[in-house]
Amino acid sequence: MVYNNECDCVSKIISNIKRLEKGKKESKPMFSFLSSIIQLFMYWVFMYVSAILLLIFGLTYVIKTNPTPIIHEHKVVQNIIQPTKRVLVEREVCKDPRGCEILKGGHCPDCVMDFVWG
């Protein structure tokens, strides 16, 4: 490219510089937005890690400075009275109010077998 005079060359350079600056300004908001997101993420990570470390150091401090508790053990002996175990008892009951009449075979016709919990 051949320029006729020096002024024409300077104006082209200035226009190129303005065009480049204009291009920078267009991409700057996007870069600024990404930069702010990255800074926010880094801030969040810093706060998260700091909170975890503070929790670990706090628990360690409490565990080490807390005195060992004195435990008194008291043994209590209780006698437990258990109810008697109930057993089903089979017994022979005579239905005749006069009493049993034992026949030749040794069996009373009025007696019945009765089951009672005893």
Describe this structure in words.
It is built from one helix and two strands; from the N terminus they run H-E-E. The N and C termini lie far apart (128 Å). 0% of the residues are buried. The protein is mostly helical and 118 residues long. It is elongated, with a radius of gyration of 53 Å. The model has no long low-confidence stretch (mean pLDDT 78). A two-stranded antiparallel sheet has the order 1-2.
At a glance:
With 118 residues, this protein is mainly alpha-helical. It is built from 1 helix and 2 strands.
Low-confidence segments, given as residue ranges, are: none
| Distance separating the two termini | 128 Å
Q: Can you count the beta strands?
A: 2
Query: Which shape, going by the Cα principal axes?
Result: elongated
Helical coverage, percent range: 40-55%
Radius of gyration: 53 Å
**Biggest sheet, open or closed, and with what strands and sense?**
2 strands, antiparallel
Q: Give the count of helical stretches.
A: 1
How much of the sequence lies in strands comes to 5-15%
- Give the averaged pLDDT, no decimals: 78
